[in-house]
Write a structure and sequence with these properties.
Elements (H helix, E strand, L loop, with lengths): L4 H6 L6 H15 L3 H10 L2 H10 L2 H10 L2 H10 L2 H10 L2 H10 L2 H9 L3 H10 L2 H11 L6 H4 L5 E3 L5 H11 L8 E6 L2 E7 H6 L6 H4 L7 E2 L4 H11 L3 E5 L5 E6 H19 L16 H28 L1 H6 L2 H30 L7 H33 L8 H32 L10 H27 L2
Parallel strand pairs: 1-2, 4-5
Antiparallel strand pairs: 2-3, 5-6
């Protein structure tokens, strides 16, 4: 299946040299009014490449070139364009042009486009559409957001179990062009899904064989109200190109294709990345440059304010132990490392937990297994980091400093022990918080950077100063 333009743009690919030449060539032909040659060039191009060229044009030229495209090419390219560019085109379209483009698109793409448009525009479009298109779009538009119904398409290969393979091929030749995919056929009786059959099975069996003899009646399907991310994960698990969607009575109402599943996973991973970076997610399809400066700031400010205010706890801890580092000023120089290193360790673990939960590799029932595993990992990591830092402090402040500093070995022991204990704390917190969030029904990704940073920073400082007081107690009279 073809992937939409949003996925292609995620790779931030620079335009190829031939794309630049094609765009310039199209503009030249348009200026010379050589429309036939221009249409011939775009007809031979991949719709995604046509969409990329349209994206690069200014609004006026984009509208002119789009209107000069062959209608089927225009409809396919339209599906690959970004929401911003599509909206620019729609604003310049007449009702007839919108409906014409809409009816040549696949229904799920058309529904996605309509969801992003003002209600007045949607009402105008549906009023001008054919009855069949209007009914199909209305069904799609009324399904809950983020459900299988919201991303499915009702355009699929519908076969009957009493047909022969020859009859199936005849039907596919007549109606296959209307289907979203021809790689899988869905066998229905009175609209109830009873089996599936692949194109491979159709081609490898004799033409007089009945469908029911070769179809797979152990059908895996999803409910129309199932979460779209779970549907995408199931398709990934079973390596499906399409997933059948049924209603509460087992009636087949549509299919979710692999391109839509990829869209969902891309959007979900983008949202998780934003949450883990302490950014409030908004439109996951919006590009970096397609988002205004104010929108970027609005997404980032709330969590930054929370994190800034949460640093108050760190300040309170530092104030509480000010007599400790007043007596031992060298302790201050190790504080950044004692906060950053455990924080990095916690974020490593949390990232793995969020990924594991998203992929189903880890569940909230694995809480104690995760704790025991992360404890063992933390002891190994903490031992190595502590030993390396102890050696570093000894070399820097004793061997290479020519005996300028006192109590160097004690400092080395304080930092090593503190780092060992802080890494254990960070690994455990990083592993437990996402699981606790999942158990409580919260989003595990939120626990990544925002909360772990605050907890680990505060905990590391408490450990550090307490260890320093214990080891230096007899030396400086604590």
């Amino acid at each position: 299946m073809e992937l939409r333009n949003e996925e292609l743009k995620e790779n931030d690919l620079e335009p190829r040299e031939d794309e630049k030449l094609t765009k310039n060539r199209l503009l030249q032909l348009m200026m010379k009014k050589q429309y036939r040659e221009m249409r011939e060039i775009t007809t031979e191009m991949h719709p995604a490449d046509v969409a990329q060229i349209l994206e690069d044009l200014d609004e006026n030229n984009r509208l002119v070139v789009f209107r000069l495209l062959r209608k089927d090419v225009a409809a396919e390219a339209f599906a690959y364009m970004s929401d911003e560019s599509r909206n620019d085109l729609v604003e310049g379209f007449s009702d007839t042009e919108i409906v014409s483009t809409l009816e040549k698109m696949s229904l799920d793409d058309a529904a996605d486009m309509l969801e992003d448009m003002p209600a007045s525009v949607v009402k105008r479009i549906l009023a001008k559409s054919s009855r069949q298109t209007r009914e199909s779009l209305n069904r799609l538009l009324h399904y809950p957001d983020s459900s299988a119904g919201s991303i499915m398409t009702p355009e699929y290969l519908r076969l009957r179990e009493d047909w022969t393979i020859q009859e199936a091929f005849d039907w596919i030749r007549q109606h296959g062009e209307e289907a979203e995919t021809v790689y899988t056929g869905y066998v229905v009786e009175q609209n109830r899904l009873v089996g599936v059959i692949s194109a491979k099975d159709l081609m490898l069996n004799s033409l007089d064989t009945q469908i029911k003899e070769v179809m797979d009646d152990n059908v895996i399907s999803v409910q129309v109200t199932d979460d779209q991310e779970n549907v995408a994960r199931l398709m990934q698990h079973y390596a499906f190109n399409a997933m059948p969607v049924v209603d509460g009575e087992g009636m087949l109402v549509g299919i979710v294709t692999i391109d839509d599943a990829v869209d969902v996973l891309t959007e979900e991973s983008t949202e998780d990345m934003q949450k883990m970076a302490a950014i409030i997610p908004e439109d996951s399809t919006a590009t970096y440059f397609g988002t205004t400066v104010w929108q970027h700031a609005k997404q980032r400010i709330p969590w930054l304010l929370i994190l800034m205010l949460s640093a108050t706890f760190t300040g309170m801890i530092t104030t509480h132990y000010e007599t400790t580092f007043a007596a031992l000023p060298l302790l201050v120089s190790f504080m950044p490392m004692l906060m950053d290193t455990p924080g990095n360790c916690g974020n490593q673990t949390c990232t793995l937990m969020v990924r594991g939960l998203a992929l189903g590799e880890v569940t909230d029932k694995d809480f104690f297994k995760v704790v025991m595993k992360e404890l063992r990992i933390a002891m190994i990591v903490g031992s190595i980091l502590g030993a390396v830092n102890g050696l570093r402090i000894y070399l820097m402040y004793d061997v290479f400093a020519g005996g300028h500093y006192e109590h160097v070995m004690t400092y080395a022991m304080v930092v090593s022990i503190s780092l060992f204990m802080a890494v254990i704390l960070a690994k455990l917190v990083g592993g437990m918080l996402p699981l606790i969030a999942k158990k409580c029904g919260a989003d595990p990704a939120i626990m990544a950077t925002p909360f772990i940073t605050t907890i680990v920073d505060a905990g590391s400082l408490v450990i550090y100063f307490r260890v320093a007081q214990i080891l230096f107690g007899s030396t400086i009279g604590f």
